[in-house]
Known about the structure:
Layout: E1 12-16, E2 19-26, E3 31-35, H1 49-52, E4 57-61, H2 79-92, E5 99-104, H3 105-115, E6 123-129, H4 138-145, H5 147-150, H6 155-167, H7 176-185, H8 188-200, H9 204-210
Parallel strand pairs: 3-4, 3-5, 5-6
Antiparallel strand pairs: 1-2, 2-4
Amino acid sequence: MTSEGIAWSLRHKTQTSVGEIAWDRMGDGPPVVLVHGTPSRSVLWRKVAPVLAERCCVYLYDLLGYGESERREDQDVSIAVQGRLLRELVGSWGLDRPALVGHDIGGAIVLRAHLLEGVAARRPALVDAVVLRPWVTPASRHIQAHLKAYRTIPCISFGRSSRRTCALRPTVRWTRRSSRRCSASGKASRGQALWPAHVASPPPRGRALLDGRPPR
């Protein structure tokens, strides 16, 4: 395995109740499991995993039906199945309360594994996650139908839109500075560098919420 997507390959295979799963591990320390979304595979984490591996033991795998994991026709790759699979993998790896990180539908898989399948998690982290329905909205359908038109919109317009979206969140006190940081934090390497530190060591208030304790 290297940090470049072209050379990316998972070194281990595990036979599970739903099919053969490709996975890998790097680093030492508290366990962290990275769960990718769709349409993707574990190569998504190629720049994130090495950073986390400097202080954590990082587990990553290809979802059932994706990447190097088993793929076949008429395969059930639903969120329910992926949630049970994650529970099975955590058990086979012998992990005790790992941090669970989910991107895209990986966020829904992480939450289902934790809340419905009983996977104890030291802390969950959702990264640009798809969790609540509807996953496809009239707005997203409109974008899909008119991609050429949307490609002509200046990038600054998307930044303004994301800042307005961030400002609508009721649980966070948003200032002009934090709003700008929200819209900029996910860009390229900057975004990849920001959230691993939160996974390894979240702020006290976030830690309290993730541990099930009310914040002070």
